[in-house]
Amino acid sequence: MATIIQRRRAVSINPLKSSAPLGAALAYLGIDGSIPLLHGSQGCTSFALVLLVRHFKETIPLQTTAMEEVATILGGSGNMEEALLNLTRRVKPRFIGIASTALVETRGEDYAGDLKLIMDRQPELAHTRVVFASTPDYAGALEDGWARAVSAVISSIVLPWSPAVTPFRQVNILPGVHQTPADIEALKDMVESFGLYPVVLPDLSGSLDGHVADAWIPTTMGGARLEEIEQMARATHTIAIGEHMRAPAELLGSLTGVPLTVFPTLTGLAPCDRLVALLSRLSGNAVPGRYRRERSQLVDAMLDGHFHFGGRKIAIGADPDLLCALSHFFAGMGAEIVAAVASTGNSPSLDAIPAETVIIGDLTDLEDAAREHGAEVLVTHSHGRQGAHRLDIPLMRVGFPIFDRLGTAHMLSVGYRGTRDLIFRVANLFMGQMHDHVPADFADVLPAPIVEESSHVSPPATH
């Protein structure tokens, strides 16, 4: 069991975590026809919007209640009501997800109660589903905001079980915030290949997968449909990924009675075997031949790649569940986790990380620990590039945000194929750092060339 170390600093020098409101907004973006609304100042929303646009390279329909000094002191329910009415009249979204920020939470108003009063007295909002999640910046990070937003959607939209619910060959999937659109697409494809119907909440594979629509619309294009979210009670099972999704999954189970399974990770041979076995049992079908072949390819990739992983010293900084997944992946391939830094301590998964210590800190802590233990690669998001440069080691970009590389939405790391591709990605990173030797490299170790003395004697000089 890892020892958890909580750093106590007056200031974060180089932040690792992203805020909880940003995580909630990201979750709301996985719902079709939605607009996330941050209840706070324009600056809070602008900063989140910049990160989302740079990460996904897509248009992001993020809005704000634009709190200013007077509203902050006297109360912000009027700003919330005005924002909801403006969005409904101009954009006509099907869903508006509200996430609070530290600015309004510090005042301690009952915004959930205010929202209920607003909905009761404004008939214009009758055809728009509005959900509120409490996500102050000072409580948690990206994972926490994502999970709270999903819980808010479940409690507000999912219909509870009743005798009238018709069972269906449906599987609910609650992905973690660290799953990319490509990961979610692969999970949906896997469920469908067993003859089951996947309902994903939130579904970024439909809204932020990088497609070009026929016409511009001011809301999200694709994602989980409200009609399917309402009918999650008809599923035979719920699959959640990551410990931060356990609370939403248990909430869904209490409402619907649907049994659930929480996977700490779906990267690696053993977790993939568990998932395939579960889907086979739920469907009553044999495992398709394609997965038997993909599993064989993964085993071969592990054999090929372990030469490049064995004994390598790895430093990882990420949100807890992503940190846990990557740590087990590297340790399973024979590498050593010499530095593990988590963005927040609000997760039981930190105890299971295969490292001596886990630091709750920032990128400065990660850089210091990597330097102290001689790490050979830095694993974190794009804000770690300066630290990797100072350490003179390669940076493997993971998590959020990744803004200096293309194709982030299509990076796959779940399932047999995703794990195989991740092995090749890391092994190629190590191989790219290998030095191609030239003769000059051996100048100090090769013996000096032997010069033979000539037997020819020069004739005496004549004058």
Automatic annotation (TrEMBL):
Pathway: Cofactor biosynthesis; Fe-Mo cofactor biosynthesis
Recorded superkingdom: Bacteria
Pfam family for this entry, one: Oxidored_nitro
UniProt keyword Transmembrane helix present: no
GO terms of molecular function: nitrogenase activity
Family (UniProt): Belongs to the NifD/NifK/NifE/NifN family.
Entry-linked NCBIfam families: nifN
Name recorded for this polypeptide: Nitrogenase iron-molybdenum cofactor biosynthesis protein NifN
Species: Gluconacetobacter johannae
